[in-house]
Every structure is written in C-alpha cells, then in structure tokens.
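We modelled the chain as a single entity of 295 amino acids. Its sequence is:
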Amino acid sequence: MQNYIIVNEKNYYKRLDKFLRNNFDSLKLGFIYKLIRKGFIFVNGKRVKKQEFELNIGDTVEIRYKGPLDERKKEEKILPRHLDLDIIYEDEKILAINKPSGISVHPGRNEEKVTIIEGILYYAKGKFEPHLVHRLDKHTSGVLVIAKNKQVARELTEIIKGRDITKKYQSLVIGKLTGDGNKLENVLEEKNAVLYYDVLENYNINNIDLTLVDITLKTGRKHQIRKQFADIGSPVAGDNKYGNFEINRLLKKSIGLKRYFLHSYFLEFEYLNKRYTLISNLTTDLKKVLERLEV
C-alpha cells in the first residue's frame, strides 16, 4: 500500500482524520486515530498530531510507520441487502429517507439486522454509489441524507458540519422545563456543543414530570442531545445510557415507550443554489406515546 497521498480536488477532505479515513480505506478507523495520536502522520514533511488539522489542495499526507500496516478492517465487504425504504426525496445527487428506529446506519459488531447502508446499496442496484454524510443513532428516527457519489459527499459533509443548515428534533425529556429560546452550551468531544430548545408541552403521569421539546441543533457532536439534556437533569425519556433506568421502566409500562424519544423531523440546507427542505413526521410509536400522555 502506498504510504503517501497528494491532496487533490478528487480526494480532498478538509479534516485530516476524514481524509485518512476516505483515502486509506483498508485501515481500521481505530488504527488511523492511533497513527495520528502517536505522531506517525506527516503533512508536507511536518508531524501532525491533531485529527482536526485542516488540509489544502496540494498537501502531501504521509504515513511514516515502520511497522507493517496490517491493522486493517476485518469486517466483510458491505453487501446489498433488501430493506424497505421510506424515501422522502430523491434527485441525481442526493437521497433522503425517513430512518426508522431500531435500524443501524452502518454494519457493526454483532449487528444482524439489515442496516441502512446495506438497504441503500440494494436500492441503488449499481446506478449510484451511496455515501453517508451524517448519522443518526440506532434508536433515533427521522431525516437521513445520503450522497450519491463521493464528490457530493465531500461537499454535503462540509455543509452539514457548518452553520448554514437547520436541524430540528423533537424529544420527550424527563422533568418539567419551561420557556422558549433556551440555550444549552458546553464542551463535548473537546469541542463546543450548542443547541436551542422550546417547550411544546408539559405532562405528568404517575407523578413523573415530562416535557416535550422542540430542538434546534447548532452543532453535531456524538449523542449531543442525549448528553446535554442529561447534563441539566432532564435526560431523554427512554434513554437508559444517559438517563434513569427505573423511570424509563415505569414509562415503558405506563405509556408504552420502548425506546428513547428522539426524532429528527426537519433538515434544511442550500446546495448548488438549490434549497432542500426535508421533513419527517413523528413516527407511529412516538405519536401513540403522546396520545397516552394526553388522556
């Protein structure tokens, strides 16, 4: 395997880690981060140890690792598998689907169900090459955008990570919150994380306060919404990782909440002078939860 690549318009990704992931795709992701962390990556002859380092066209990215580059991806090649897709929008550049809860975006360890990317490969039938430009957690439902080629993926990834996009979610959280225009801001993954939320409705069932919130996500950190609401003492209802297991058990029994209540319902951005407005209605299972709360 060639140990260096010159950055050009076809292989360009702004961040070093993303460039390495997409241009040394035979290497495991964890190994790539290990190479960066331990100082085996050089850009234009200078050692770089920051995964977010920004590249420019013409840079030379080199792996100076004396050992064999044998810590490679061991997972099998992703194969097309049938999956019923709820398509929101499609053109020659993008595909937007309504992702169901309980379906992973990408194959992982011990994952037996058909994943989103496998289902889209089956749907594409070789007519386009799907690339994920953002992700939703396994049990989060709603709008998910897929690029149809690598160039579109690069451009959309930058848009989605930037500020020129509107990302909205609905969530049911534990506790009684009030007001509009509330801001949550702290540091996640060593980066600033910001969201705003408005209160839509307050509920109480069996002396458990719950609040339905409308969220505008300004940044995209891993598990950001779930972590930030947990940090203020109002975790997402049904979230056992960051929330209250006992309360979630009671909610499952009383209102049938079987997963965490988080839905990506609105995504809007401009790409190549075209405005994309993508909307996903609340899923049937979450609608039933709200109906039971309103009785």
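As a brief sanity check on the tokenised model: Residues 92 and 148 are 7 Å apart (CA to CA). Residues 150-161 form the longest helix (12 residues).
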